Amino acid sequence: MKRMCSPMKQTGKSGRQSHSFLQGAVILTAGVLAVKLMGAVFKIPLNWVIGEDGMGYFTTAYSFYSPIYSLATAGFPIAISRLVSMNCVQKRYRDVRQIHRVSVPIFLLTGTLGLLVMLLGSGWYVRAMGNENALPCMLALAPAILFSCLSAIYRGYYEGLRNMAPTAISEILEALFRLALGLAASFRVMQMGMEEYTRLGSVFGTEAASKAEAQALVLLWAAAGAIAGVTVGSIASFLFLLLRHKIRGDGITQTEYRHSPPPRKALATARLLLKTAAPIGLGAIAVNIAGLVDTTFLQAGIREALLQDASRLLRMYEGMIPAYNLENPQTIPNFLFGCYANAHTLFMLIPAVTQAFGVSALPNVTAAWTGGSRKKLQTSIESVIRMTALFSFPAGIGMAVLSQPIVRLLFGSRAAAPIIAGVLPVMAAGAVFASMSTPLQSMLQAVGRVDIPVKLLGVGLLLKAGLNYWLTALPEWNIMGAAVGTLACYVFIMVGALISLCRVTGIRPRFWAVLGKPLVSAGVCCVSAFCAHGFLRQVFDREALALPLAVLVGVCFYVCCLFLMDVMTREEICQLPGGQKIIKLLEKRDGIE
């Protein structure tokens, strides 16, 4: 092999770090995996502490928070990243600094308004939902809007400079605080509430007629304690980014700054940011409204299903709904929503990782598009699609075929586990399309068509809302209707984004190379893992051993398949951690591009 690999970390004269798409994706993916691991360590024990009812309150607060946060940021982080990347290519470093200065007051204003909207609107929302017990969670989460907005300034800025490390570190720091403080707070609140009931027969001053009622009362405060950890994490993340920027700066040298053209006026930069951010923000709001659609239509639909034919719905879940919920039927919609929320948490693991691919792809595709190199643009687009497929196909299909053992491992023998396992395969299928759609939309934004993702998301959201409204009210569908709506939504968005990207750029990717080969490899991976699990379950009779070993078998088959089919290019392998060692092992083989 004559051609050497490029170094993993690239630096200019200033020492400023600049990552390629794959290098940035590796850094962000490592950060996301660490965050998700800590999230699992947070949410799985939390689920045992607060149960499906507590998770219902927790998720209700998040569903209201997410669109407000998206409205507050309004697409500015992506707009900052894109504009910073464009100006760096053109060596307009004064404009790069100008973008950062202008974004600070904008985010202070929008973050403060978002905080006020959540504080003032939470009471109205929970009353409209008929779920007033979620109010403490919503109020505890409100300050996170302001600090998350301020963090977004620095994340977008460094991502535009193609330095993904600050984003990854800040996200890990945020997750650490969420884990440590949120879990400790929820456990302590549960402990204090039940101790008070034992002594006084009340929970934080509210009388409880029975132990079951006391547990129900303490759950809403325990969930609020958990979500307070999220708020503290957002504060820690912002402080890290602020101090890093103050101490280490952005890497632009005085020489680069002096020789760059005069910047635009601050007002002109603000207008450009608004023009770029507005359609992106609408799209981000649409994505987060999808969670609000689930929260609203699912619980309302289940109430309607109970009114239509309660016996049919309850027969479906006989032995799976706790006695307290059966004695208080008005709590059943929140309980089933909590089951769906647990499946949705697993669903989100896959798009969360590929979102890192989209973040890393945007500045690199922007640079290729701005530079006018068609060959570089095609290489960038194909690399993004291929690397996204390489992760999302085996992860999504594997989650679908191994849904039962996954739920058994995570939720044990809890009565609600079969409900979660029943909806997870459809959610996992949706995760494949959701994870593919995010980088495709990022590339559309990178080439200047920020309007197309908004249109696709709008239609997809209407499709999801319509299916949710119709199907969840049918007793035989209930929460499965929300899963089907999610799948249909993301199938439409992914296919539409891929077709649009091809039309806008005039580039037709080699579909067999970027999608066909990863799909075949993923099929081999999942079949081998499924068969191995069946055998290992008989041998060990312990899910904690059988499932991880079966996944390991699938991964081994997957890696072998990737190399046998020459799925990755030489350049992509070079940019992986340990890529040069892998190349040396493959030097005697032909067929690597």
Structural notes for this entry:
This protein is mainly α and 593 residues long. The chain is built from 20 helices and four strands. The chain has helices at 21-73, 76-89, 93-129, 135-141, 143-160, 165-200, 211-248, 254-258, 266-316, 323-327, 332-371, 374-401, 403-411, 417-446, 451-471, 479-505, 511-540, 543-564, 570-574, 579-585, and strands at 10-11, 17-18, 202-203, 206-207. A hairpin with a 2-residue loop joins strand 3 and strand 4 (206-207). The longest helix has 53 residues, at 21-73.
- The helix/strand series, from N terminus to C terminus, equals EEHHHHHHEEHHHHHHHHHHHHHH
CA distance, first residue to last residue? 11 Å
Residues in β-strands, percent: under 5%
Order of strands in the sheet with the most strands?
Answer: 1-2
Averaged pLDDT: 83
Q: Report on the biggest sheet.
A: 2 strands, antiparallel
Broad structural category: mainly alpha
